[in-house]
Amino acid sequence: MDSIGHLVGIAAASPWALALMAAALVVDGFFPFIPGEMLVVAVASAAAAAGHNPLVVLAAAIPAALAGDLVAYHLGRRLGIERWADGRHPKLARAFAYSRRRLDASPASMLLTAKFVPFVRVAATMTAGSARMPLRRYVPLALASVSLYTGFNLAVGALVGSAAFGLLGDPLVALGVSLVVGLGAGIGVDALTRLFHRRQAGRAARAAALA
Q: pLDDT tens digits, residue range 15-36?
């Protein structure tokens, strides 16, 4: 078991693990089927269980996630969103329509929270690009969003991974526990974010009706 823990520690500290996580986060910024957040949880969990500083994971994750969002922003700016917002792609159409409404009503809260919602995070970023939101306004919001997003997943992985390893003494089991908790936490934050957006939309609709 000690040899397994040693191997897990080497893997967590390896530049290749960080590079794989960073590449996944870049792609996740414009292609929502890549589980970038799960890799952050996994690498942070393995690093914490092996006694490494998980902040190294954060230092690699934030720039990578921001780069992915900037790719999506420029795709929206160059290509527009009409081809993905039509009836041929119902799920994407709903995400883009929702993003357009929320960006018009409250761009800061939308961009800060959209990263936690699959599909919406890409739709919101591409919509911001298509709407020609100035980069000087978009980049600080995107940086704050990816910092919250990666920081949350790193905290889940590091805290749960370290605690599970301390209790169970098995780095692989600790990693599995972290992934399960990370998935559950992600689903919970997704649900809370959707509820927040619905309430915001409801308030905006009531204010418009009273105007």
A: 778 888 899 999 998 887 887 8
The DSSP symbol for 86 reads S
Q: Which residue has the tokens 């290749």?
A: 16
Tell me 85's DSSP state: S
Note the residue count of the chain: 211
Sign (positive or negative) of CA dihedral 72, 109, 54, 189:
negative
CB atoms within 10 A of CB 58: 18
Exposure string of 128-147, with b = 16+ CB inside 10 Å and e = fewer, is bbbbebeeeebeebbeebbb
Among the residues of 14-89, which ranges form H helices?
A: 15-28, 36-49, 55-79
Determine the Cα–Cα distance for residues 131 and 104; give it in Å rounded to an integer: 10
pTM: 0.77
